[in-house]
Amino acid sequence: MNVFNRLKSNSNASLKPPAAASTEKYGPVVHEPKLVPTAKFTPAAQPALTEEQKDKVVKLKQYIESIMLPETDKYYPNERGFVTEATVKRYMRARKWDYEQAKVMLENTVRWRRDYRPDELDPDYIKPEAETGKMYFNGFDKCGRPVWIMRPRLQNSKDGERQIKHIVYSLERGIRLMPELVENLAIIVDFKDSSASHNPSVSTCKKFLDILGNHYPERLGVAFVVKSPWFFFATFKIISPFMDPVTKNKIKFVHDGNKDEKDTKQTTNEWVNLGDYIDTDQLECDFGGHFNYTYELEPYWSALLEKTGNPYKVIEYN
Length: 318
Prior knowledge:
The protein is an alpha/beta fold. About 35% of the residues lie in helices and about 10% in strands. It is built from ten helices and six strands; from the N terminus they run αααααββαβαβααββα. It has a six-stranded mixed sheet. The longest helix is centred in the middle third of the chain and has 18 residues, at about 100-115. The radius of gyration is 20 Å and the shape is globular.
């Protein structure tokens, strides 16, 4: 996750994609990502709404529709697609069903989207950030959530503004990969071969958390931290106070056979096995799966645009 990267370039050696392991038994190496889910996932279900909650959803949706852009505005179709019942429910859940807080939050997002146009970010502008494979989608978890893979060691850019826009661009593309009834993402942050120089600045972490928490609430389903180094634990302790407790608990650390038992005591977050969350045919060999995939920019970028819109696609938000 770029949030876990310091805004600086690294040595050329660190920018090389991960070398293919001895994985011949899983077939030849492929460069085409899995951007279409299988039929065997089970979406995470939300609790049924009470009558009071249903009334709040209707009331908030009606209010937001009352301040929407006029139909003659060029951006109206985008805004209309965003203001759905599913969107309203996410904002209500994020604010623990406090109507006034959810109203302020959602109205701020609607106005932010008009200015930032996150769903219309230019792929050609973003593409240089994707050259090394530091952040990409590949596979789906057992709940049908697109898997967003992040490798901090592959940071290749000094452009802080474009890095943040790359995150936003990826969030929007990930939403477009979600199958019906799925409304959040699964993230894998792979710290293999990372050093302290890849660690993020606290200000970058806070900026990312601000965008994710305020403008993409309830979009994080689960985040897996792989091969977590000591310096990440230090950063995690610093940024934890800025995180909503529900979001914090969605971050899970992946068991590593090379770690001592004491490593699992550096955080109160849960330690898990990836295979319990992602089927092996959807999980790259690097993470213990059977999908023998190696990232290459052009095949990935073409497949992503084909599935999510080139240059972009207006959708109705799950």
